Amino acid sequence: MTAYNAMPYIREAVDSALAQTQQDFTLLILNNGSQDGTGAYLRELEAAHKGTDKLPRLVIEHLDSNIGRTPVLNRALARVETDITAILDADDIAMPQRIARTVAFFDRNPDIDILGSDIAYIDGTGNIVGEEKYPAEHEELCRRLPLVNQFAHSACAYRTAKAMAVGGYSTDFPYAQDLALWIALFRAGSRAANMQETLARIRTHPGQATRDINLIRLRAQDNYRLSQAMLGIPGLGRESRQAARLRSAGALFKLGDWRRAWPEIWRGISEAPLLLPANKLLWSRLLLEISKRTKRRT
User: Fold this and answer.
1) Based on the domain organization, do 172 and 47 belong to the same domain?
2) Global pTM value
3) Whole-angstrom distance, CA of residue 45 vs CA of residue 1
């Protein structure tokens, strides 16, 4: 868990981690230079655990200043001493059986390196406001990746050594560092799966959708480069490659780079000209973008 100005939600997130049915794990928390009550709360937590043999083990590091989201994730990953790393953001909630289910799945499936789960969305007061269900198998998860990220970070776990081998979270991506990691693992030959049960609750906030033009440009740049990186995933089908190409073009249009956008559209069409009218991923992505724009206006 990494945390920056995470009050008032971090207490609930930590409580959900400490209440796991399987207690044999380490809860590693990096306080990324918080300036609210996060540091004080975590120091109280440290004091309560100091000198005890309580499980799960608790390790907390306090940084003097905020070093950024991607660097702090890599700093945390470098401190992991276990074979499996599980993520929980400081405003989300883990279901009590999450760790037990995760460990059991990895034990049964040594060929799987990335593991997600279905999720529920909650609002600021913890009320469930929606849900997301993902495919179970690697091939379908990869096929749908150009549509939308198929792994909620707070519902994910991965084999630590595999993530370290591809360099951890890429510092080239300030916002989509989790998707960049999944793509890097896929390109390196890792396989993924999804547990089709809700093991995490992901908090949504009214202010999450930004209208800052600089941030919109940075996200579009991430979107373009990640869509291009998806093309290197082994075994990616024509439907997915076409969707990734046209998603790249859409990002270039957002950046105002028409010179590169039009050739990318042509490359997308050329991937499978006859498939274009029936490409479900492409039209689902288009509907998703229209939905996002409608929500922003309302």
Assistant:
1) yes
2) 0.90
3) 14
